[in-house]
Specification:
rod-shaped, single chain, about 5% strand, mainly alpha, two-stranded antiparallel ribbon
Length: about 110
């Protein structure tokens, strides 16, 4: 069995310490390598989940901002935005603007 120690303070040593709670690397130990692999996969999954949640929150905020600015209608999961005062004001302004244009066009 090959049993090596990773020297501090390089990135590999810090990552090994984080993943396996040890800086000892046992290259020929199948159980050790399986645990290392599983820990790496689990860490990657957590990282992807975290970034996915952050992107979903950012997208939700972007849509909310567009709705409040009156540039789009609220999706079904954001119907409470119809009661938002800024949304009401913007839609009222848009309605007045388009009705004014309609009135002017009838006289032309």
């Amino acid at each position: 069995m090959i049993n090596n120690s990773v020297e501090f303070p390089n990135r590999v040593a810090v990552r090994m310490e984080y993943l396996m709670t040890s800086t000892k690397v046992r290259l020929n130990d199948k159980d050790f390598m399986d645990r290392l692999y599983n820990n790496l996969i689990e860490e990657e999954r957590k990282s992807l989940d975290k970034s996915t949640k952050m992107r979903q929150a950012a997208e939700r905020n972007r849509v909310k901002k567009l709705v409040i600015e009156g540039k789009m209608l609220p999706p079904e999961d954001m119907l409470e935005l119809y009661d938002h005062p800024v949304f009401r004001l913007k839609t009222l302004q848009l309605c007045l603007k388009y009705s004014l244009i309609k009135i002017i066009m009838t006289f032309v």
